[in-house]
Amino acid sequence: MGPLSGIKVLDLSRVLAGPWAGQLFSDLGAEVIKVEKPGEGDDTRHWGPPFISDEAGDKEGDAAYFLAANRGKRSIELDISKPESLDVIHRLVKQSDIIIENFKVGGLAKYGLDYASLAQIKPDVIYCSITGFGQTGPYAPRAGYDFMVQAMGGLMSLTGERDGLAGGGPQKVGIAISDLTTGLYATIGILAALRHRDQSGEGQHIDMALLDVTVGMLANQNMNYLVSGVPPKRHGNAHLNIVPYQSFKTADSHIILAVGNDRQFASFCQLVSRNDLAEDTRFAANPNRVINRDILVPILAEILEQHPTSYWLETLEQVAVPCGPVQTLDEVFADPQVKARGLKMDLPHASAGSVPQVATPIKFSKTNIIYGNGPPTLGEHSAEILTELGYGAEEISNILKANE
Questions:
Q1: Whose CA is closest to 108, among 128, 125, 124, 92?
Q2: 244: cis peptide before it, omega within 30°?
Q3: pLDDT tens digit sequence for 246-267
C-alpha cells in the first residue's frame, strides 16, 4: 500500500508538466487513468527518436520522451468532442478525487469539462489546471511552452556564459525545467487541497502557471534583485554569491569545486601549498573573494589544471572540500552511489516486455513507493476501464468504435 492508495486521479493532460504530476501520484500509490486522443495519444508518444520496439525488435513503439512521465497509469482513448466519450468522462469524474488538465484557458468549457461544470457532478473534486500563464492576466489566452517561459521568466537571463566570453549569451536549462517544476508544485498544491478536503469536505480549483513557477523558483536570484535593485547577470558555471563555486578544467576533464565557507577555502589552500591565498585580505573572506573573483579564479584555474580529475576528487575529499566530477549520463548510471540508491529500474511493458525507468527519488521509512507496470500503450486499458464503469458489452463495443 502506498501513501496515496485509494486516491483516484483522472489525467486529462499531455506532454510533461501534467503527466509528471500524474506519474508522481501513481508512484505514491494513487490510481491514475490517462485520457488520450484516439489514434494519436499524448503528443510525446511521437517525440523521437529514440523509440522503444516490441520484444521481437520488429515494430517501433512509443518515444522515450513519453516513457519518462507516464508509468503506472492506465490509458483510455476518448474523443472528448463525442457524447459517448463525455458520458464516460462524467462517470470517471464521479469516482475521481483529482483531475489534472493542461488545455488552453477555457478550452474545456465548451465540452462541459471545466471546473465549474465538473464540480456540479463531483462537488469535492480537486481540479488542477496547468497552463503557460494562468487563468487570469493579459497573457492568459496564450499558449505557453517551457522554452519560451524559461526566457520570459528570467531563467535564461541567469543561465549561460557571461556576455563577451566564448559561448556567451542566454541558454535554456538542459531539461524542460519549467514544466517539471510546475508538475512538482502542482503535486504539492493538490496534496494540500486533499488535506483541506479531508478537513472541510470541500473541493477546489488549483490554477498553476509555468510563468508563475519559473519566476517563483529563482529564489536567491530574485532576492539579489529585489534587495539591490540590480538585475543579476549570467555567470556561466560560477556562482553569483560564492567564490570559488564553479567548474574548473583539470588535466584531463573538468571538476566542480564548491567551496561554501572560509574554512573550506583555507583547507583547499593548505592542500595546494598556497596558504598565502587564505591569508590574503582580498581572498580570506567570501565577500572579498566575490569582489575579487577575477583575480582569484585564474590563479585557482592554473592550480587545478595541473592534475587529473581523479587526483582532485581523492585529495579534496580527504580534506573535506566539496567537489564532484562532471558526468555524462552513461557515467551517472554507472556511478556506485546512483546504483546503491536504486535509481535505475525496469518495469513490465505490454509490447516491449520491459522498459527502463528512473525511480522516484523519495525514500520513505514506513510507506512504499508503488511501481506497477511501465507506461501504457495507447488505449491499452480502454475496455477494462469501461467494464469497471459498468458499461455492458454492446455499449463498450459502440464506445470503442466511436473512438476509433
A1: 128
A2: yes
A3: 999 999 999 999 999 999 999 9
Residues 313 and 355 in one domain: no
Q: E strand or H helix at 148, and its extent? A: helix 146-152
The kind and range of the H/E element at 130 are strand 126-131
State whether 309 and 212 are in the same domain: no
B/e letters for 156-166, b = 16+ CB within 10 Å, e = fewer, are bbbbbbeeeee
CATH number at residue 296: 3.30.1540.10
Three-state DSSP at 99 gives strand
Q: Give the chain's mean pLDDT.
A: 95
Residue among 145, 179, 175, 183 nearest 159 (CA): 175
Asked if residue 240 has pLDDT above 90, the reply is: no
pTM: 0.93
Indicate the number of domains in the chain. Answer: 2
Beta strands in 158-308 (DSSP E): 204-209, 245-249, 254-258
Q: How far is CA 225 from CA 154, 218, 230, 235, 240, in A?
A: 11, 10, 5, 15, 12
Angle (nearest 5°) at CA 323 between 320 and 328: 150
In angstroms, the CA 205 to CA 131 distance is 13
Q: What is the pLDDT of residue 363?
A: 95
Catalytic residues: 179
Q: Residue with C-alpha cell 479531508?
A: 198
